[in-house]
């Protein structure tokens, strides 16, 4: 009888351990499947797609926010009309929804305008160019600036931004060559 309980206990412990670990992997796989299903791919291939589409070299920041991310995706949005075309990247953490960082890259010719009421601060980047800090997009702190013929929008979830300052977004902007 004692051997039976030991066997049953060992079996249940093994079963539940495998269930929990496969559920954790499943969550990660589900996130990846969701993003891949809506057109995202890995960052490197998205950059290649963007460079082919825009026929220009595209630079990404060499720095990211100092928070952890479990996933990074990118996609080239080639919608109707050139003015809607954009290269988009998203970095997220599957267990920490506030760890969400986005990069949007558009040709300057079709840049997103910012009304004065949405501009919280004007900032000089290291190269002398001007960037704006905005809260235009609900739930995100955004830095917008022009570089190499593109408009860059770097956006961080404002809940994560409580731990991260606007200066961190400026550092990321300054890391783009």
Structural summary, described in words:
The protein is an alpha+beta fold and 177 residues long. The chain is 34% helix and 28% strand. It has helices at residues 2-37, 43-54, 158-161, 166-174; strands spanning 71-77, 86-92, 100-107, 119-124, 130-134, 140-147, 150-157. Strands 1-2-3-7-6-5-4 form a seven-stranded antiparallel β-sheet, sandwiched between helices. Residues 1-24 have low confidence and may be disordered.
Key features?
177 residues; alpha+beta; 7-stranded antiparallel β-sheet; 34% helix; globular; disordered N terminus
Strand order of the largest sheet: 1-2-3-7-6-5-4
Q: Assess the beta-strand content as a share of residues.
A: 25-35%
Overall pLDDT level: 84
Euclidean distance between termini CA atoms: 71 Å
Summarize, please.
By secondary structure, the protein is α+β, with helices and mostly antiparallel strands. The protein contains four helices and seven strands, in the order H-H-E-E-E-E-E-E-E-H-H.
List the helices and strands and how they pair.
Layout: H1 2-37, H2 43-54, E1 71-77, E2 86-92, E3 100-107, E4 119-124, E5 130-134, E6 140-147, E7 150-157, H3 158-161, H4 166-174
Antiparallel strand pairs: 1-2, 2-3, 3-7, 4-5, 5-6, 6-7
